[in-house]
Amino acid sequence: MSEPDRPLFLVVTIKPRKDRLEEAEAQLQSMRRNTLNEPGCVFMHLTQPQDDPDNWVMLEMFRSRAAWDEHMQQPYNVEGNKILESLLREPSELRLLDEK
Fold first, then answer.
1. Tens digit of pLDDT for each residue in 64-96?
2. Cβ neighbours of residue 38 under 8 Å, at least 6 residues apart?
3. Name one Pfam family in it (predicted).
């Protein structure tokens, strides 16, 4: 379990619908722009694996678990995730990681 004051890293595997790629990317980039303005966000990058181009990966770092918890409650994030539901093939896979 992550300690409250330790950085929190996230790897989110996103599976956009092939017929809604542009919409999905626009929604994710909008959410990303808002998140980068949060004081608890260190970085957030939307990437595309070279060996798996049908899926995307969001790489994130927050200053703490509390900062990420606050991020998850932001209106643009709550609403954005609702919008994403219809743009994805299946729910995103979220992995939380602690620094060693």
1. 999 999 999 999 999 999 999 999 999 999 999
2. 67, 70, 71, 74
3. ABM
Give the residue among 20, 19, 2, 22 at the shortest CA–CA distance from 67: 2
> What is the domain extent for residue 37?
1-57
Give start and end residues of each alpha helix (H) in the chain: 21-36, 65-72, 75-85
Cβ contact 9:97 at 8 Å: yes
Q: How many residues does the chain have?
A: 100
Identify whether 81 is part of a domain. Answer: no
- Where does residue 48 fall: left (phi above 0), alpha (psi -120 to 50 degrees), or beta otherwise? beta
Number of H helices, E strands in the chain: 3, 4
Q: Measured between alpha carbons, how far is residue 58 from residues 4, 12, 45 in Å?
A: 22, 5, 6
